[in-house]
Design brief:
single chain, Rossmann fold, seven-stranded mixed sheet, binds S-adenosylmethionine
C-alpha cells in the first residue's frame, strides 16, 4: 500500500506503543505501519487526546490544525462537528485498536465507513493478556468506560476469564467492590496500566485486594480463575438474592436495603419477571413498588429498559432511589412518589407493568387503561383476591417456596401470581 487508501479521507490510527528516546523525555508514538507518519504529516487536521497528539508531535507541522479530545477539551460531538467542517485529509489518533471500544463507530455513523482508513495497533486488552502470559480466545471483554458499571460487572461475574476496560468513573477498585457482592469463580486479578508506554505497570493481585487498593483509573483489569468451572448464568439481575443488607466495607452496596417484609422474594420475582416478557427496549411500571426489587431487577436486564417505580410511602421511595443508585441503575429507574391510581390517571402506556401493591382497583385500572400489548403481572398473598385477578388477567399460579434448613424445610406462605401476556 502506498499513501492514503484511495477515497478514504479520514485516517484513524491506533497507537499503543509509545517509546521514550531519553529518560524523562516526551514519549514518541510508534506507528502500527510505516505509512502512518506520512498520513499524519499530510493531514490538514490531526485529532486525538492531548497525550497522543504530544506523542505524534514530530510528525505534526505548524500549519496543521490540532483538535484535542477529552475532559476540559472537545467533547466527541464537538470533535465530529469540527471534522465535518474540514475539507482535506484528516487524521484521528486513537489508542490501541480504534475499532475495539474506540472511536470507529462514532466516525462511521457520521462520515460513513467508506471514508475511514483504519490502521490498528494491538488493543490494550491484547497487550494485557500478553503481559500476563495468558491466551484470550476464551475471554469475555467488557467495558465500564462510558457504559453502566452494573452491566460490565454482571457480564464479568458470569465469565471464566474476563478483561474489563476501566474509567475514572469506574476505576479498578470500584469494579472490585461491586464484584464482591457477586458469585464468581475468579482467584486472580491483574491491573494493567499505561500499557505500551514507558510507565507501563502490571500488578497481579486477588479479586478481594482489588476492592481495597487504589489503582490507575485508565487500566485494563483482568480476572481469571485457576481451573475454575464455567460459572452458571445467574437468574438474579443486578443485586444479591437475599433481602437483608450485605455488608461490604467501603462499598456502595452497603446501602442495599430491600426492607424484609416488602420485598418480592427472589424466586417469586424470577417467575413474575418471566411472565412480563420484558422488551429489550421499553418502559416498565412497577406499581406499588415497595422496596423496588422487581422494578430494579427489570432495569438490570437491558440498558434499553426504563422503569418507573410508583410508591406512595416517601420512606420507601427514598429507599428505592438509594437501592437503584447503589446498583448503578438510577439512570434507568425513576421513582414517582404517588398514589397508584392517581398516577395511572395521567400516565402513558408501558410495555409491561407489575402490580405489587395498590389493590384490585389499581389492577382494574391497568386492565382498562392498557391494551393487550402491555403485559401485566400481579402478586397476592390472598387467594380470594388472586382469583379476582385471574378473572381480569386470565392466568394464575400459586408459588410455594420452601427453604431447606438443618431442621428441615421451612415453608414460606403461598404467593399467588396472576398475569396476562
Ligand atoms: C475507549 S477504550 C479504548 C480501547 C482501545 N481501542 C484499545 O484497543 O485498547 C479506553 C479504555 O481502554 C483501556 N486502555 C486504553 N489504552 C490503555 C493502555 N495503554 N493501558 C491500559 N489500558 C488502556 C482503558 O481501560 C481505557 O479506559
Amino acid at each position: 500500500m502506498t499513501g492514503q487508501v484511495a477515497g478514504k479521507r479520514i485516517a484513524v490510527i491506533g497507537v499503543t506503543t509509545l517509546t521514550s528516546r531519553a529518560p524523562g523525555s516526551q514519549p514518541v508514538a510508534h506507528w502500527p505501519d510505516p505509512e502512518c507518519a506520512q498520513l499524519v504529516s499530510k493531514a490538514v487536521v490531526v485529532a486525538g487526546s492531548e497525550r497522543l497528539l504530544a506523542a505524534a508531535g514530530n510528525e505534526i507541522g505548524h500549519s496543521q490544525k490540532k483538535l484535542f479530545l477529552g475532559s476540559g477539551k472537545l467533547s466527541l460531538q464537538e470533535l465530529l462537528d469540527n471534522l465535518a467542517e474540514t475539507s482535506g485529509p484528516i487524521c484521528v489518533l486513537a489508542s490501541g485498536d480504534p475499532g475495539f471500544f474506540g472511536i470507529v463507530n462514532a466516525l462511521s455513523d457520521r462520515f460513513g465507513r467508506e471514508a475511514l482508513d483504519i490502521r490498528p495497533s494491538p488493543s490494550s486488552v491484547s497487550l494485557a493478556f500478553a503481559r500476563l502470559g495468558l491466551a484470550w480466545d476464551d475471554a469475555t471483554v467488557v467495558s465500564a468506560h462510558g457504559r453502566p458499571l452494573v452491566d460490565a460487572v454482571s457480564l464479568a461475574a458470569s465469565s471464566r476469564k474476563v478483561a474489563i476496560l476501566t474509567s475514572p468513573q469506574s476505576p479498578p477498585e470500584t469494579i472490585g467492590r461491586h464484584l464482591a457482592s457477586r458469585d464468581h469463580t475468579f482467584t486472580n486479578a491483574a491491573v494493567c496500566s499505561h500499557l505500551g508506554s514507558p510507565s507501563e505497570k502490571v500488578d497481579v493481585t486477588t479479586p478481594k485486594e482489588l476492592a481495597f487498593g487504589t489503582w490507575e483509573p485508565l487500566s485494563v483489569v483482568i480476572l481469571w480463575g485457576e481451573s475454575s468451572p464455567e460459572p452458571r448464568i445467574s437468574w438474579q439481575g443486578g443485586f444479591p438474592a437475599g433481602e437483608t443488607t450485605r455488608s461490604i466495607i467501603g462499598s456502595p452496596l452497603d446501602t442495599y436495603n430491600f426492607r424484609g417484609s416488602m420485598i418480592t422474594k427472589p424466586e417469586v420475582r424470577a417467575v413474575a419477571i418471566s411472565k412480563l416478557r420484558l422488551p429489550r427496549n421499553g418502559i416498565v411500571f412497577d406499581i406499588g413498588a415497595g422496596s423496588g426489587s422487581v422494578g430494579i431487577e427489570c432495569s438490570s436486564f437491558s440498558p434499553g429498559i426504563s422503569v418507573v417505580c410508583v410508591e406512595k410511602d416517601p420512606d420507601s421511595c427514598a429507599r428505592i432511589e438509594s437501592n437503584a443508585k447503589a446498583l448503578g441503575l438510577s439512570a434507568r429507574v425513576k421513582v414517582v412518589c404517588s398514589d397508584a391510581q392517581k398516577f395511572l390517571e395521567s400516565s402513558g402506556t408501558p410495555d409491561a407493568a407489575f402490580v405489587g401493591g395498590g389493590g384490585m382497583k389499581v389492577l382494574e385500572c391497568c386492565v382498562s387503561k392498557f391494551s393487550q400489548e402491555t403485559t401485566l403481572a400481579a402478586t397476592f398473598t390472598s387467594l380470594e383476591r388472586a382469583e379476582l385477578a385471574m378473572g381480569l388477567l386470565g392466568n394464575m399460579i400459586s408459588i410455594g417456596v420452601s427453604s431447606a434448613t438443618p431442621e428441615g424445610f421451612k415453608d414460606n406462605n403461598l404467593i399467588y401470581l396472576a398475569w396476562r401476556s
